Amino acid sequence: MLRPLQEFINKHFTELTKEEKDEVVDGLRKGAYPSNDFYLMTGLAAVIATLGILTGNTVVVIGAMVVAPLMLPVLSFSMAGVKGDLAMFNRSIKGEVKGALLAVLIAIVVSYLMPTYELNAEFLLRTQPTLLDLGIAFASGLAGAYAIAKRLDYTLPGIAVSVALIPPLCVAGISIGLRLGLEFTFGALLLFVSNIIAVNLAGYIVFWVVGLGPTWYWDEEETRKKIYNSVALMLLVAIPLGWIMWTSFEEKYMASETMDVLEGQLSGIKYAKITDISHFIEEGTWHIIAEVESPSVVGFGAGCGNAICA
């Protein structure tokens, strides 16, 4: 199935020499054995990301993504799967898990020391992953794996920002540290896991088609099985992501529809306007709470679709 793609790449792009292939494999093998520098940079990135999320500073969060080295063990994991290197496979998993736990732990400690905190967009953005996030992670994984295979090191910082592995871990830690609720923790962890699976699948595919996989037929069959397993995992993650995305679209649709109805009811009252609108769901029924500024008494209740307006 992937043979035409491999032939296309070999035809239109410079094929790697044996020395270049060995260099790429050796580099990723080293990445599967994280050093103290790896954990130091991961810890510092977690501190930066946590403070950036708590303060709602997008620039700081982006800086943390550049500092965090979490993507390398993931691509090492992909290379280990393609090469069938069990030792490299196990070490890359352990390195990624230890780095992730370190980031979550630091976020818990930093957030616990904060006197007060209000939810902001930087936090909420990482608690409701969608299929779009999965697509971003997959495309970033393709770019990252190709950049490493072709030794395009200058693109790696931008790719690290795109896949964004450190912020979801810090959001999960913040949620635990501030006791904000399991839904925020699970949502952030779901985003992190889906990103890992998408990048892993992308790494499998790229490393195989550029000729870094095994040359024996039996090994290639095993490589294909690993790729199919990764596809299955990504589809498994896509199910809850799809449900979350559908729920998000439904909420936006209901909010937009309700806003149109309310604005229509206010159209005949001079100077009346909606200042805020929120909702909650109870026993399958939408409850819409709207704040209205009006020179006269306004009553709602009819014409709000499937929602109860107050």
List keywords for this structure.
2 domains; 3 strands; elongated
Compact overview of the structure:
It contains twelve helices and three strands, in the order ααααααααααααβββ.
Shape annotation? elongated
Residue windows where pLDDT falls under 50 for at least 5 positions: 301-310
Q: For the terminal residues, how far apart are their CA atoms? A: 57 Å
CATH topology of the largest domain: Glycerol uptake facilitator protein
Compressed to H and E, one letter per element, the order equals HHHHHHHHHHHHEEE
For the largest beta-sheet, the strand count, sense and barrel status come to: 3 strands, mixed
Quickly count the domains: 2
In angstroms, what is the radius of gyration?
Answer: 24 Å
Helix segment tally? 12
CATH class of the largest domain: Mainly Alpha
Strand numbers in spatial order across the main sheet: 1-2-3
Helix content: 55-70%
Instruction: Count every beta strand, where a strand is a DSSP E run of 2 or more residues.
Output: 3
CATH architecture of the largest domain: Up-down Bundle
What average pLDDT do the residues reach? Answer: 78
Strand content: 5-15%
Structural class: mainly alpha
